[in-house]
Amino acid sequence: MMMNMVQAINSALAMEMERDPSVVILGEDVGVDGGVFRLTDGLLEKFGEARVIDTPLAEAGIAGMAIGMALNGLRPVAEAQFMGFSYLTLNQMINHAARMRNRTRGKMTVPMVLRMPYGAGVKALEHHSESTEVLYAQIPGLKVVFPSTPLEAKGLLTSAIRDPDPVIFLEPTRSYRMLKEEVPDGEYLVPLGKARTVQEGDDVTVVGWGAMIPLIQRAVADLQASVEIIDLRTISPMDSETVVASVERTGRAVVVHEAPRSFGPGAEIASRIYEGAILKLEAPVERVTAPDITVPLPKGEDHYYVNEQMIRDGIERTLRF
To answer: SS3 for 307?
Structure first.
């Protein structure tokens, strides 16, 4: 049936809770209110308060509870209301969730998901528009996942819930209700760590994820060039092989992300392209990103957020080189 991303995520949660009684949901307002964006709407009524748990406003406590649950046989899906609120979970996620497999030499794992909306584009308040995925992606033991469409959201979240290790699941706020597409009512999985080729092309490879994918598609629609678009899906683990193979063929690469430019994911992707395809490159790797500033308040957001013209300009600079 036709679903937006909110409905697709809700469908994935409901299906996994029906399939596996060890799956539980916890977070601020996830129960009675159905979540701040209504992603967990109806789940409390269906599965009860023992499995859909409203927590205090304490992100460190939410992460700590989820880790304890995961170590004792449950599969918790914890929610941080916004990425900017999730920084309080970093101690728990870095020092415990990410390390437990190594700490116990594989005897214990932490099968949990920490999901949260991320990114700008909706003119939200301070701390509600962060795109700081590198804080998590740099940590060994954490997987960092981005859905770009409703179909991708259902498949990736289902795989994340079933994964034996902790997954950071970053949902693009801008895309929650932006588009609808056909999503299976039944089980649907997308493997973690495997990029997808959204559109094939011969002249330049454009790499993005999350909210950037629909933006890239619109940006290249009227370009007089053959553009290959790759949705990375996860930045940890990163599917370098798909990206490098594409760039070896096209000879040019553009990376698009809404995280700040310096030390952003684009720098790592560019490095892997140079390591794997430098002799095939016909131009330097171009990065189209947000600037190195704090996300501005709503009046300034249009001057900050990556837009279609910026993407077109980046592609054209690469093609002209």
So the answer is: coil
